[in-house]
Amino acid sequence: MKNSKSLNLREIVVISSISIVFGVLYLLWIFFGQLIEGIFGPVARGLISGFWIMAPIVCAYIIRKPGVALVGELIAAGTEILVGSVSAGAVLILGFTQGLGAELALALLLYRSYKLPALMLAGVFGTFANFVTIYFMYGYSQYSSVITGLMLIAMLISGAVLAGWGSKKLADALCRTGVLDNFALGKIYREQRVNEDELSQHS
Amino acid sequence: MLEHYQKNGFFLQEVNPTLKLFSVLIVIFFMVPVFDPWTPLLMLIITLTLIIFLGGISPGFLFKILIPFSFFAFSFIWINVVFPSDRGDTVLFFIGSMPVALENVLTGLSLGLRSLLFISWSLLFVLTTEPTKLMLSLIQHCKLPPRFGYGMMAAYRFLPLFRQELEQIRAAHRIRGLGEPRGIKDKIRESKMVIIPLMAGAIRKAERVAIAMESKGFDGSRERTYYHAVPWTKKDMFFGIFLFILYAGLTAIRVRFVI
Predict the structure, then answer these.
(1) Which of A46, A117, B110, B117 could disulfide-link A151, Cβ–Cβ 3.0 to 4.6 Å?
(2) Do A14 and B198 touch (CB under 8 A)?
(3) Is the pLDDT confidence value at B226 over 80?
(4) Closest CA to B193 of B168, B227, B165, B170
(5) How far apart are CA B112 and CA B76, in angstroms?
(6) Which residues in chain A have Cβ-Cβ distances shorter than 8 Å to B125?
(7) Complete domains list, chain A, with CATH
(8) Of A16, A84, A139, the CB nearest to B111
(9) Closest chain A residue to the Cα of B196, Cα to Cα
(10) Ramachandran region of residue B231, left (φ > 0), alpha (ψ -120 to 50) or beta?
């Protein structure tokens, strides 16, 4: 059970509770995002869209098993609906495609690398999937290609910075509190600490 | 408020959550190729009527939720007028030197109404479905592994505790002399200081709950009994038939008038 590739209950509940926190934040973010889109248009909304890919990347970075990104984002979408999201249908479809995007990026790296570039790639793939989905769902094909192009660029930047770098920052900060010691990320941190201690003793 | 509506026993509340969730997805797929304003308008009226009469939701409450989202819907109109993929020929008037074409306004209107329709159909689901019932239905009818279903429900139960914990963290910050946040900059700084302890607490609680569940014999297998079974009833059949007639009718009208 310890090193199995499938998720155990402990990991599922932890993913869910991380996603619950994000689910509530997403709810606030939807209002914020819609306000921004209403006033500044979809390009500005693109810049904050990476936030939606944070839940799967944080979960994947912490637990480091195949499928965590997709499952994490689906659970985040599910909890968002439980909490009472006003865009339940869109959330469910977006959750699936975004999770799939992030998962694909990690799968391409054979689930070996969880360094910053890998996470940024996952964020970029995630926001790209988000873009393709809303392109069809909200009929963005009716806009000029200049604005959809700008929007895509804004979203990809947001995916790399907010989703990639932001998630890593958040997860590392969580790890320093010690609550993740039983998970893959916490174990790596502990090994590093032990190695550093040995080095300092030898010198 | 939400819970009160989710439990009030009107027709929609009794429909199987899985079927309702499915209907939310259908509406999205149905609207993808639609770019005229009449179809979403008609659908929006039907949806709101359903929510008010079959869901027993008060109209005032419903519109209070929808008003902020009409901002979002409005953005579709102005973006379509300013940045259309091809500008229409029927120029209504000029803003400065920019022509405003009827076709673009109508497309924008259609997309705006579409987004409102998605939101109202989601409200139909969210306002009439108890979260627990949804999860049980997904486990019983959609082959969602119980480990995931019950795991999510356990985490969902933390939600009220978060508010309490948030108060505690804030009080702890105050007692250490960090003061009250003033202005937007302070608020952002405060939210950064709050989110990590909040999440750390959530993870700690999650681990404890998972261990408790396992120690009481929850093994996540499918061979289990349920205290609440979510049944399929005649109401589901009626709702299914209604959906079929609705989409068949809409398709027929669209084939006749639009295409």
Answers:
(1) A46
(2) no
(3) yes
(4) B170
(5) 5
(6) 81, 88-89
(7) 9-202 (1.10.1760)
(8) A139
(9) A174
(10) beta
Residue A59 to residue A73: CA distance in whole angstroms: 9
Beta bridge partners of B93: B100
* B54-75 residue pLDDT tens: 988 889 998 888 887 887 788 7
What is the share, in percent, of chain B residues with pLDDT greater than 70?
99
Partners of residue A96 in chain B, C-beta under 8 Å: none
The pair of structure tokens assigned to B93 is 């008037």
Chain B CA closest to residue A71: B148
Chain A partners of B118 at a C-beta cutoff of 8 Å? 87, 89-90, 137
Position A110 pLDDT exceeds 60:
yes
- pLDDT at site A1: 40
Residue type, B114: R
B24 touches chain A (CB under 8 A): yes
pLDDT tens digit sequence for A160-195? 998 999 999 999 999 988 888 888 888 888 888 888
3 state DSSP class of B99? strand
One-letter identity of residue B163: R
Under 8 Å CB-to-CB from B40, ≥6 apart: which residues?
B31, B34, B110, B113, B114, B116, B117
**Residues on chain A touching B147 (C-beta within 8 angstroms):** 7, 9, 12
- Chain length of chain B: 259
Distance from CA of A137 to the nearest CA of B (A): 6
Q: What is the 3-state secondary structure (H, E, C) of B220-259?
A: CCCCCCCCCCCCCCHHHHHHHHHHHHHHHHHHHHHHHHCC
Rounded to 5 degrees, φ, ψ at A170 are -60, -45
- Are A179 and B200 in contact (CB < 8 Å)? yes
Tell me chain B's radius of gyration from C-alpha atoms. 24
H or E element, residue B92 = strand B91-95
